[in-house]
Each structure stands twice: as C-alpha cells, then as structure tokens.
From TrEMBL:
The organism of origin for this protein: Pseudonocardia kunmingensis
Coiled-coil annotated spans: none
Entry keyword Amino-acid biosynthesis: no
The keyword DNA-binding belongs to this UniProt entry's keyword annotation: yes
Keywords: DNA recombination, DNA-binding, Transposition
Family: Belongs to the transposase 7 family.
Domain spans labelled Tn3 transposase DDE: 589-976
TM stretches of this protein: none
The protein, known as: TnpA family transposase
Length: 1004
C-alpha cells in the first residue's frame, strides 16, 4: 500500500536526513548547558558517542525521529554541535558502529526530552487526527507531513514511513466512506439515477450532460445567455440549488468538484458508487452557483455591449446633427453680427435681418430645417431603443429564472423588475399607470414623460423596460441589488464579519493594523497627519521657484520628474556581469532551478494520487513552457518529442492555479534568500500594473480596444515586489478598472513578502482604495496623472485653512464630512477587518463600493475618508522629490518585467488563444512562473559573477548594484529545439552545482 503512495526511492528518502536550512540549523542545533551536561564525558562516553548523542538529541525535535545512520547528518549541523562540545566533527564517522549504541542513545535522548514511543493509544489519536485532516485534504504527501508535524507537537517518536503511509491510506479510505455517509441523506434513488444520467450521452444535445455543464460560454450573445439559463433550469430541476453540503468541509467539496470536472464520463462510470456519487453531487451543487453567476455576468455583459453600441450611434448622430446645423450656425453668426453692431440703430435691425443682409428666403429655410431639442442624455437611450428587439431575445428568460433582492434603496427597482417579469409572463404590452418610476434617473425621465404625454404606450414600454434593465445592471454592480444563491453577486453585507464576530476580533485587528478602535482617536491622528503634510507642501510652495509651485493665477504647476540619472558605472557593471553569465536554454534554466528549489514538486495530482513517474518532471517542464512561450501543446509536442496525449494528461491533472501559485512561491522564497536580493529592495514595497495581450477567437474576457488591439484582447494584472519578483497575477477584462483588483494579491499574498507600501499608476487609484489601504495599515503610493487637477480636501473652514497655510490652503477646495466618517468608523474598521481576515474578496467589495451611489452611507463615508488620505498623499508626494522618484523607480521595475514577459510569450504573435477564464489564468501563471525563474536564475548568477569580481580585488558598491536589474533575457535562449533531458542537463553542472561563468570577451 505504501508503494502506491510513495516510490521506494521516496520512502528511503523519508528515512534519511533531509537538507537543512539556515533557520532550522540555528533553531534546533543549539545545546543548552543542561544538554551539554547530559552528554558529559563523565558518563563514560568518548568524543564520537558524545557527538552522536548530541546529534540525536537535536534531531528528534527537528524531524520527530532519528535516522539510523546518524553519521550522515548534515555536515553543517554536525560542525555546529562539535564546536559547542569542543570536539572534532570528523569523529562522527566512527559513531554507532554497534546498533545497540544508537538504539540506547535514542532512547536516552527521548527520555531526556520527554518524548515517548508510538503505542496503540498514540496511533489511535493519530488516526483520529488524520481522518479529520483527510476530510479537508486528500493529498497523501500533505497528510504525511501533517501527521509528522502532529507527532512532533505531541512529542511522539515517528514510526517508520511505511507505518505512517499505511495510516494515511487508511485515513483517506475512511474519509471517502465518511464523505458518503454524510451525503447519504441526499443520495436518494431518484437523485442517484439523475446523477448517473449525467454520464450518458443525451440525444437532445449530442453529448453527455456532464460535459455540457462543464463547457462554459465564449461570448455574451443571446444564444449564450439562453444556453446558460437552460443549464440553470436543468440543475434546478435536479434540485442542485437546494443541496446543503455544509456537512462536508469546504476543502473537501472543492476537491471532489475538481476531480469531477477533470474526469471523463467513462472514468466516472467505472468508479464505485461510494466514490462516484459524492463527486457528482458536489459538482452539480457547485455548478448551480457557478452557472447562476454566469447567467448574471452574461446579462451584464450583453446589456453593456448594446449600451456601448448605442453610445457610438449617439455620437455619430450628434456629429451628423452638428454637420446639418452648420447653415443655422452661420445664420446665427450673421444675425449676431447685425444685432451686436452698435452702429446699427435698433429700428433698422429687423429690416437688415429680413432684407438685404440676410433675407426671408434664408430665414424660412433655416426655420424649415429646425431640429428638435436634444434630451438630457443627448439621445443615448433613444439609440439603445434600436437594440430593444435584441435585448428581448434573452432578458425575459433571465428575469424569469433569476431571483433578485436588495435593500430599501432598491425597493422601487425591485418592484419594477417584478412588474416587468409579470408583463413578460402574461404577454401584456402596456405598462400600468401606477408602475414604479422612482428608480429612473433624471436624464431619462423626459423620455417617459414625452411618451406618456403623447399617449404612445409602445414607446413608454420600450423606454421604461430599458430603464429597468439598465438600473438592474447598475444595482448588481453596486451591490444595491443582489442574487440569493450567487457567489459573485451575493449580498455584500453577508461577506462581512457579523457584529458578533467583529466584537471578538476588533481588538486583534486594530492591533495588527495600528488603528484606534474609537473614531475620536482615529480622526485626531488623521488631522495631525493632514496638517503635517500640508505644512511640508506649504514650505515647498513658499519657495516659489521649484518644480512644484504656484503660477500667477494661484494654479498648481507640477514640472515633470526628470529621468533618473543612472550612474555610468552601473551601466558598465551590468554589461560586464551579463557577459560573465553563461548562456542557457530556458529548459536548462528550469531544470537547474528545480534541483535547488524543488518547485516542480509543488505540482500535485488533482485527484490526490501521489506516485510520480520518472518522466513527470520532464512532462511538466514541457507543459509550462508550452504556455509560457505560447507554443501550445501541439507545437510543443513536435518540438520536444513528447506525445500530445502525455502532455495533455499532465496539464489536465497537475497544472492548475493552486499548484502554479505554490511553485511560484517556492521560487520567490528561494530568490528572497539569495545574497544579492536585499540590494534590489527591502521586499516591503510592491507595485501592480496591467499588461494587455491580444486574443484569438471568442472569449467572455476579451474586449475590443482600438488603442491596444487590432481586434480584441484582455489584461493580466500583476503585483511585483521591489526585488523584481512577481507574487500575484490575475486575468481581468481589459475595459474594467484595474483599481478594483489592487488589493486582491496583496491580501491574498501567501509568500513571506511583508508588503507595507504599494505603488500603482493612475488606473489603480480610487478614493475607496485610498481609504481601505490606510484602514488595513498599508500605504498606497500611486503616480497620478494630472495630479494638480484632483480635488483636495480640508477638515475645517476655508478661512481657517488659508490662514494656517497661505499657499497650500487655497488649493483645498472642498471640506470633508468628518461627521459621516465618525458615524461609520466602526463599520469602516469592520469592512477592513473582513478583508484582512479573508471573509470577503477585495475586488468584489471595492468594485461594489466604488459603484455605489450617495444613498450607500458606508460607501460615502469610505470615500470621504479616502479623499482625506489622498490629500495627505498628494501633499507629501508634491513636497518630496525622493518619494516621487521611489514610486517611479518601482513602476519601472514592473515595466521591465512586462518587457520580459513579451519576450517569453513570442509564439503566435503573443495572442492568447484560451477561450475560458480558467485556461487564460493558468497560462498567465505559467508565464509568471517562467518570468520569476529567469529573474531568480539571473540574480543567482549575478551573485556568482560578483563574487568572482570581488575575489579578484574589484570593489563593487551596493549603491551601484541597486541599479542593475535581473529582469532581462540576454543570456537565455527561448527559441530553437526544445529537448527536455533532465539527467543530461544536470550532468553539465559543475562540482558546485552551477554552470561555469564565462571569461570576459568570449562567446562560450
């Protein structure tokens, strides 16, 4: 059974000493005076026995057991203990030649430390622990590690790995049985039959219902919307929306659904019922939520696309109107020239207008071509009316299928939605006179009033229905309207900590972020910061001749920041280091880094299987490069000689977002510990920016943007540290605001990257972000375009501000509503706490809060607070040139990584060909992983080259090195034949485990 989980080689590795890190070395291999006395020579022990016993004494808390071959302990650990004992470390080679000596010493060490053997009681407790963990995680390697950690915490000596593996396997089997038992109440005969029917080919759709459910839309057309509505109806017919699977841990549900999406119908049919039914049940339950989200998202996208086209038609109509009105404008100019001429007597004006100067003919012609006045929206809603028939192809089905709810502010709108649903069901065409219109914006009210006054019931119906649909879309975006049972469009309040939970976590949150729990203290600190920042700005403006100054009209003048003067020494040093670095194909680079970081081990089987073939790493490298270079699996199979089927299987079961993230973290962790890395930055500053890629084929994430794409494209939004590594990547719609996604990767950062300050460009800035960043104990430091034109806020009266700050005070044109902020201070903290503790997704909440109107008091309070934080930032930014340059330098690091990504993604003209978000996200993470691999490899070899220079007597200052970026690909070959031969590549490394550096001015 153990062999089915781990290979013989892996089992043997679990019995030996692993490599030891610096932290573990200093944490575990340190002897106290009592420890030294315990191994005292007075007990009749020679140097070898004393050192061997000390190794056992320190190894037990480290590994939870002591390997048989104590003499093979890490050399650094042995040397550290020998130094503390005053013994030659080489004597360890003669230790433990008698097995009884090793056994006795391990028993003595266990007694001294208070450890005990794993008896029947201890193993029973381990089984209970493993069962609970197996209900959450199914990976054997993870369960083995958790079991080892549990035994260490309980001070129980870990039995042999085969014993632990058997207990892991037993726990996994019990977890499968427990899963089935917990779901047995939902697995009625009728439902089991319906689940089995998912695996049979349905003649009506020409495929299995399982594949039909797992195939997402690629466009927001009426047909696509209706197809998703049909899926939702099918799932509801199965009762999927009513399933309560809360008896299973969330991780267990996610695991089962993941397996269900990856297995074919034939593979599921072959599984025994106790495994098949839980998988299908969790899959349909998650599909019910996912499809509901997809229906609402497609509704939003389709309505928005038609509104955008209506805007284009409106602008064309306005241009035609302007052209047609040129004669009338000329006539107006001629009349004004006569009427405004003081030399023309009043009594002669009429005669000149109607007579020789202009004439009746021209006047009557202009009168005949008079155009009706424009409505308040300049005709946008009228232009949208041309798409009324298009919208009617799918909106009735959406309104009939989806249930909407909302707060008090959305009462009129929800009543209108209910009425429209009723009109659609009955086929009635006339909107009742009492139909709600309170939700209709003022700019559209004229359409309804005009249609009602004319008695045109058809036009009234069209305009009223369009108003309902647009208001419903806007309400879903702002969170004023939500969809019960949805995940993406759920009630925003439900994702926040409950008042009871907040009462328990308020103090902890305030301690973590350094914010007072009371509004009085928070606002007092805010005003102190504002006055200090304004004082700095006042001093800058008082000089009057700097890059930031006031002109004669009192307007703020901000001169562009001059380009950073990179020392010529740094340019020369980078060239020299680059020439010393070896040339390496991208394949070789990944193989080499895996040997040092083990990042390929992070790719685990989605089904929990652990046995790894000898060729798996080879296949994974090929898959990663197929996405990172955009070759695709088909062309990669031709390039590397590995069959397409093998690559497709490895991709399907091993390459997914969670494994890519884990592998990326392994590279980042290794890069952080390289000697050269701290010179690039502290790791506390990061930045984020979007990078746009063209797409090929239809996709729900693709949008046309003439400025960037010939046809359509998407954006990847990446977060980068000041040490040149990318710790987060997210695929977003190119037309959506990047600001909504700024906090996602910072809060979801699983790496040991202690981000405290974050830079963005203008696209990453909103008042909501300024407020949330500060409430979370972070600093938002953007580079804002047209900073001099933003509104700056004050906390007191205008006269007080101008008296205190004669130069800066007049720039503070608006007074902040501190009373509103104080009233909602605790709610603001609760909102930030919900994000901090992972109860809500930042992008969803930021998007809804940014779209909320004035009626949402919490959103309004957050924006007021954010406006003050933005004012403080602006004052500091304008008064501190070094601050401005730091932000610019960090954003430039992100741009250099963008350039590296474009070099990597060379095939198919860099066009993303994945149709669905999941595939696009996986490709984005493959590209990020390859980029970080290049940066890590270059940083490491820069360090080796630098050591070589310094050994030769060369002095290189860290200030110069800080200007040398590892984000380049001069020494890496992305092209040509791709041969993944791991053993051959590793054989090329020198005795140190690295490639030899090149001598200057050589080609090899």
């Amino acid at each position: 059974m153990a062999g089915a989980v781990f290979s013989d080689e892996e089992l043997e590795g679990l019995r030996r000493f692993p490599e030891i890190g610096r932290e573990e070395l200093f944490r575990f291999f340190r002897l106290t005076p009592a420890d030294v006395a315990f191994v005292d020579p007075g007990r009749g022990r020679g140097p070898a026995d004393r050192l061997g016993l000390a190794v056992a004494l320190c190894t037990l808390p480290w590994l939870g057991f002591v390997p048989d071959d104590v003499a093979s302990a890490p050399r650094a650990a042995v040397a550290r203990l020998a130094e503390q004992l005053g013994i030659d470390p080489d004597v360890i080679g003669s230790y433990g030649r008698r097995a009884k000596t090793r056994t006795d010493h391990q028993r003595l060490a266990a007694q001294y430390l208070g450890w005990r053997q794993a008896g029947s009681l201890e193993l029973k407790e381990l089984d209970e622990f493993l069962l609970a963990r197996a209900m959450e995680h199914d990976l054997p390697s993870l369960l083995f590690r958790l079991a080892s950690e549990y035994l260490i915490s309980a001070k129980v000596i870990r039995p042999g790995p085969v014993t632990v593996v058997k207990r892991v396997a037993h726990a996994r089997e019990l977890a499968r049985q427990e899963t089935y038992d917990r779901l047995a109440h939902a697995l009625t005969t009728e439902r089991c039959t319906a689940l089995d029917d998912l695996l049979a080919v349905d003649a009506a759709i020409g495929t299995t219902r399982l594949r039909w459910l797992n195939t997402g839309p690629v466009g927001a057309s009426p047909a696509a919307v209706k197809a998703e509505v049909a899926k939702l109806g099918f799932l509801r017919g199965m009762g999927a929306h009513t399933l309560d699977l809360s008896s299973l841990p969330a991780e267990r549900r996610r695991f089962l659904a993941t397996v269900g999406r990856r297995l074919t119908a034939q593979a599921l049919q072959r599984r025994e019922p106790q495994r098949r039914y839980p998988i299908l049940l969790t899959l349909v339950a998650q599909s019910a939520t996912g499809v509901l989200d997809e229906v609402v998202a497609l509704f939003d996208q389709a309505v928005s696309a038609r509104e955008s086209k209506a805007g284009d038609r409106m602008r064309d109509a306005l241009a035609e109107r302007a052209t047609a009105g040129e004669d009338r404008q000329g006539l107006l100019d001629a009349i004004l020239a006569i009427a405004a001429d003081p030399a023309v007597p009043d009594e002669e004006v009429g005669g000149l207008v109607r007579g020789e100067r202009i004439g009746w003919q021209r006047l009557r012609a202009a009168q005949a071509t008079a155009l009706p006045p424009l409505p308040r929206d300049h005709g946008r809603l009228a232009a949208l009316d041309a798409s009324y028939g298009y919208l009617r192809q799918f909106t009735p089905q959406v309104l009939e299928t989806v249930v909407f709810a909302g707060g008090t502010a959305a009462g009129d709108l929800l009543a209108a939605v209910g009425l429209l649903r009723e009109l659609n069901a009955t086929g009635a065409r006339k909107v009742p006179a009492a139909a709600p219109v309170g939700f209709v914006p003022t700019r559209w009210r004229g359409y309804l009033d005009t249609a009602a006054a004319c008695g045109n019931t058809s036009s009234y119906r069209h305009y009223w229905e369009l108003c309902v649909l647009l208001a419903l879309r806007d309400g879903l975006r702002s969170g004023d309207v939500w969809v019960p049972g949805s995940r993406r469009y759920a009630d925003p309040g439900a994702s926040l900590l409950t008042p009871e939970q907040w009462d328990q976590q308020r103090a902890e949150f305030c301690r973590l972020v350094g914010r007072p729990a009371e509004a009085t203290g928070g606002l007092a600190a805010l005003e102190d910061e504002l006055h200090a920042a304004l004082g700095e700005l006042e001093a800058t403006l008082a000089d009057g001749d700097g890059p930031v100054r006031l002109d004669d009209a009192g307007e703020l003048v901000i001169s562009p920041l001059s380009a950073e003067d990179i020392p010529a020494e740094a340019v020369a040093l980078k060239t020299e280091l680059t020439e010393m670095l070896p040339f390496a194909p991208i394949v070789s680079l990944l193989i080499e880094l895996d040997r040092r970081t083990g990042f390929l081990d992070c790719f685990t089987h989605a089904g929990g299987k652990q046995t790894r073939s000898a060729e798996l790493k080879r296949n994974l490298i090929a898959v990663l490069l197929s996405h990172a270079t955009n070759l695709g699996l088909t062309r990669m199979a031709d390039a590397c000689g590995i069959s397409y089927d093998i690559l497709a299987w490895a991709e399907e079961w091993y390459v997914r977002e969670e494994t890519l993230r884990a592998a990326n973290l392994a590279l980042i962790g290794y890069h952080q510990n390289l000697p050269l890395t701290p010179i690039f930055g502290t790791g506390t500053l990061s930045s984020s920016d979007g990078q746009r890629f063209p797409t090929r084929g239809k996709s729900t994430t693709a949008r046309p943007m003439n400025r960037y794409f010939a046809h359509e494209g998407l954006s990847t939004y990446s977060a980068v540290t000041d040490q040149h590594t990318t710790y987060g990547t997210k695929v977003i719609v190119a037309t959506k605001r990047e600001a909504h996604y700024v906090l996602d990767e910072i809060l979801g950062n699983a790496a040991d990257v202690p981000i405290t300050e974050h830079a963005t460009d203008t696209h990453g800035v909103t008042l909501v972000n300024f407020g949330l960043f500060d409430l979370l104990g972070l600093q938002l430091s953007p580079r804002i375009r047209d900073l001099g034109k933003i509104t700056l806020y004050r906390t007191g009266s205008k006269s007080d501000a101008e008296a205190a700050f004669p130069h800066a005070g007049p720039l503070l044109t608006r007074r902040a509503n501190l009373e509103l902020v104080a009233e909602h201070w605790d709610d603001l903290l609760r909102l930030a706490g919900s994000l901090k503790f992972g109860h809500a997704t930042a992008s969803l909440l930021v998007g809804k809060l940014s779209a909320s109107g004035r009626q949402n008091a919490l959103a309004a309070a957050l924006k007021e607070y954010g406006a003050l934080r933005r004012t403080i930032f602006a004052a500091r930014y304008l008064s501190d040139p070094s601050y401005r340059r730091k932000i610019a330098r960090q954003l430039n690091k992100g741009e250099s990584l963008h350039a590296l990504k474009r070099d990597l993604l060379y095939a198919h003209e860099g066009a993303i060909r994945g149709r669905h978000l999941e595939a696009q996200t996986e490709q984005a993470w493959c590209l990020t992983l390859a980029t970080n691999a290049v940066v890590t490899w270059t940083t490491e070899y820069y360090g080796l080259a630098l050591d070589s220079l310094r050994r030769s007597g060369r002095r290189v200052d860290d200030e110069v090195l800080a200007h040398v970026s590892p984000a380049h690909s001069e020494n890496i070959n992305f092209f040509g034949a791709i041969e993944v031969d791991i053993d051959a590549e590793l054989a090329q490394l020198g005795p140190t485990g690295y490639r030899p550096l090149r001598a200057p001015d050589t080609l090899f």
